Amino acid sequence: MKRSIPIIDLADIGLGNAEEPKQSTIDRVSKELDEAFVNIGFVYLKNHGIDNPTVDAVLRASQTFFELPDSCKDIYRRNSTQYDGYSGVDQEILESKNLHEVREAYDITSLDSFFPDKHQPEFRKTVSELVPKLCKLSHRLLRCLAVALGLDEEYFTRCHTMMCQGSDKNATTFRTLFYPSLADGAIKAGVERCGQHSDYGTFTLLFQDDIGGLEVLSGGEWIAATPILGTVLVNVGDLMQFWTANRYPATIHRVRVPEEEIRRRQPRQSLAFFVHPDNDVMVSPLNGSKNNSPISALAHLNLRYSQTYKY
Ligand SMILES: O=C(O)CCC(=O)C(=O)O
Ligand SMILES: [Fe+2]
After folding, report:
1. Among the four 93, 179, 197, 229, which has the fewest Cβ within 10 Å?
2. ipTM confidence
3. Ligand 1 pocket: which of 59, 205, 206, 207 to mutate (most atoms <8 Å of CB)?
4. Residue whose CA is closest, atom 9 of ligand 1?
């Protein structure tokens, strides 16, 4: 049977609710998250409390930045020692067989980081509205996951205390992605928008526009992760898979170049929030398995980056 990505209603765990969430909601959401992560590693959340205008404002400000000439964007390029900033087409190849991955991105690990203020001041303003909400929502999900795994409710939040305070402390990254129009000709072998990969950290939150193309590999089949307005998509990262001794799979996903030319001509945008533990947190499987030695969150991430970035 073809699996599908479930939708969970966060109800009073969502950020819209001023009061503490009810224990019954925490218990229900924890159970549903556990089921979704065990079965497919992906889930849509509704009623998360991050409003569409806040998300749309970042998408619009990002688009203006990405449409600048390369000579401007080059000023903000990230490199092997400086995680924050702009990456151009082909700078990150996620699937080694691909010749081209036609994707641009801008990464932020701290709101004090360097932003393209001179060329696009709205970018800092809109990202600074959204990122604190992403941190807050992530903490609420980390609590539910601890409950789901039978741990003390603060187990994971204690390991994620420095999110968005700079990559020297915690590598959690807000990334705005832009997949340019692929106007010319047919689809070519070895050209993707985003090659197949799993994410690296604890989990990822993803907002996507309505263009589509994201697919998730489950039970040997590719399943479309169709955009659903008002939801955020959450998926398990490699480090969480290791932490949970494979209970939660870091599911492989990709973004395909659309087959219909009319859709290929349209750029696609998404916003990803890659949640990582604090750099010095030592991670080992929660079930006590001694098959692998513990690894620090930072060492794990550096290993994964070294496999994908072309500098
Ligand atoms: O753009 C998307 O929808 C997904 C991007 C992604 O998987 C990633 O950047 O890790
Ligand atoms: Fe990803």
Report:
1. 229
2. 0.99
3. 206
4. 272
